UniProtKB/TrEMBL annotation:
<keyword id="KW-0949">S-adenosyl-L-methionine</keyword>
<dbReference type="InterPro" id="IPR002684">
    <property type="entry name" value="Biotin_synth/BioAB"/>
</dbReference>
<dbReference type="InterPro" id="IPR010722">
    <property type="entry name" value="BATS_dom"/>
</dbReference>
<feature type="binding site">
    <location>
        <position position="66"/>
    </location>
    <ligand>
        <name>[4Fe-4S] cluster</name>
    </ligand>
</feature>
<dbReference type="InterPro" id="IPR058240">
    <property type="entry name" value="rSAM_sf"/>
</dbReference>
<comment type="function">
    <text>Catalyzes the conversion of dethiobiotin (DTB) to biotin by the insertion of a sulfur atom into dethiobiotin via a radical-based mechanism.</text>
</comment>
<keyword id="KW-0411">Iron-sulfur</keyword>
<keyword id="KW-0408">Iron</keyword>
<dbReference type="Pfam" id="PF06968">
    <property type="entry name" value="BATS"/>
</dbReference>
<dbReference type="InterPro" id="IPR007197">
    <property type="entry name" value="rSAM"/>
</dbReference>
<keyword id="KW-0004">4Fe-4S</keyword>
<keyword id="KW-0093">Biotin biosynthesis</keyword>
<feature type="binding site">
    <location>
        <position position="110"/>
    </location>
    <ligand>
        <name>[2Fe-2S] cluster</name>
    </ligand>
</feature>
<feature type="binding site">
    <location>
        <position position="73"/>
    </location>
    <ligand>
        <name>[4Fe-4S] cluster</name>
    </ligand>
</feature>
<comment type="subunit">
    <text>Homodimer.</text>
</comment>
<comment type="similarity">
    <text>Belongs to the radical SAM superfamily. Biotin synthase family.</text>
</comment>
<keyword id="KW-0001">2Fe-2S</keyword>
Length: 338
């Protein structure tokens, strides 16, 4: 990673390697497991109720047909994964899903569309969705691909709370996963989102064949944002037949736990979310992730196109661990990062 700051062109934010150099993040990964867990737990308790977990539900509002070549993604049009391209969902269908998620206890509703970037006319529908879901009393998040500055402002004016745009992996490993956009494209979009006054949701995927050093590079990129993201989703690769990463050697589950712990230590006030791949992790590994500082999950039986633990399974696991769902009206002192 360069020692020079990377300047977002659309706003005054920078990424600097001064706060968390990659070697310092790697040193956290290399700690004895018990010591790392203790430090992560201490950090977590300084900023959050350790028994509270945010429940977020993710809905694909426009599935498949994406022109990108992300090696992990079953929605890429160039891969034969059994995913059929669909048009954007009607507003009533989205609101029905949001009401159902709210009834099950979710406080944040996330809407994803398989676009490289939205056209301006696409935002008309998305803005209506944001307004109507917010009217239910839920937090709103969308992930639509790359944004222009005026598009970020449109979403802000509609009342959007969070915009998700993952970095996916470290800069040094990125070209092994995606060739249809570069790392700076992702950074520029995040800069425009932050410049519009929207909270940032950004994380990555582990288990794609990257090294521990490259996992440290991803966390360093996120932690050195000024400010770092309010929400940090950590995904465990879900291997989908037909994608280039299908057949990848599985990541050691304890390495995933380490990634959660390091994210918590380096971004102490962020909501660290267990995202894709929870079904493959199992209850015991998820329990360790909560101990390591994860305090948000995607909740529901499906993410964009891949499976997720059933709602009743999640409720049972949280009950067994003595964890409770974050209330929509609970103290949000850590939601805005200074």
């Amino acid at each position: 990673m360069s020692s020079q700051p990377i300047v977002f062109h659309a706003c005054s934010q920078t990424i600097s390697a001064d706060t968390w150099p990659v070697d310092a993040v790697l040193a956290l990964f290399d700690m004895p497991f018990a010591d790392l867990m203790l430090r992560a737990q201490q950090t977590h308790r300084q900023h959050f109720d350790p028994t509270e977990v945010e429940l977020a539900t993710l809905l694909s509002i426009k599935t498949g047909g994406c022109p990108e070549d992300c090696g992990y993604c079953p929605q890429a049009a160039r891969y034969d994964t059994g995913v059929t391209a669909q048009k954007i969902l009607p507003l009533d269908t989205v609101l029905q899903a949001a009401r159902a998620a709210q009834a099950e206890g979710a406080t944040r509703f996330c809407m994803g569309a398989a676009w490289r970037e939205p056209k301006d006319r696409d935002l008309d529908n998305v803005e209506d969705m944001v307004r109507e879901v917010k009217a239910l009393g839920m937090e709103t998040c969308v992930t639509l691909g790359m944004l222009a500055e005026h598009q970020a402002q449109r979403l802000k004016d509609a009342g959007l709370d969070y915009y998700n745009h993952n970095l996916d992996t470290a800069p040094e490993f990125y070209e092994n996963i995606i060739s249809t956009r570069d790392y700076q494209d992702r950074l520029d979009t995040l800069g425009r989102v932050r410049g519009a006054g929207i909270k940032v949701c950004s994380g990555g995927i582990v288990g794609m064949g990257e090294t521990r050093l490259q996992r440290a590079g991803l966390i360093a990129q996120l932690a050195n944002m000024s400010p770092y993201p309010e929400s940090v989703p950590i995904n465990h690769l879900v291997q989908v037949p037909g994608t280039p990463l299908y057949g990848q050697e599985a990541l050691d589950p304890l390495e995933f736990v380490r990634t959660i712990a390091v994210a918590r230590i380096t971004m102490p006030k962020a909501r660290v979310r267990l995202s894709a791949g929870r079904r493959q992790l199992g209850d015991a590994v998820q329990a360790m992730c909560f101990m390591a500082g994860a305090n948000s999950i995607f909740y529901g039986d499906k993410l964009l196109t891949t499976g997720n633990p059933e709602v009743e399974e999640d409720r049972a696991l949280l009950a067994r661990l003595g964890l409770k769902a974050r209330n929509a009206h609970s103290d949000a002192r850590c939601e805005v990062i200074q």
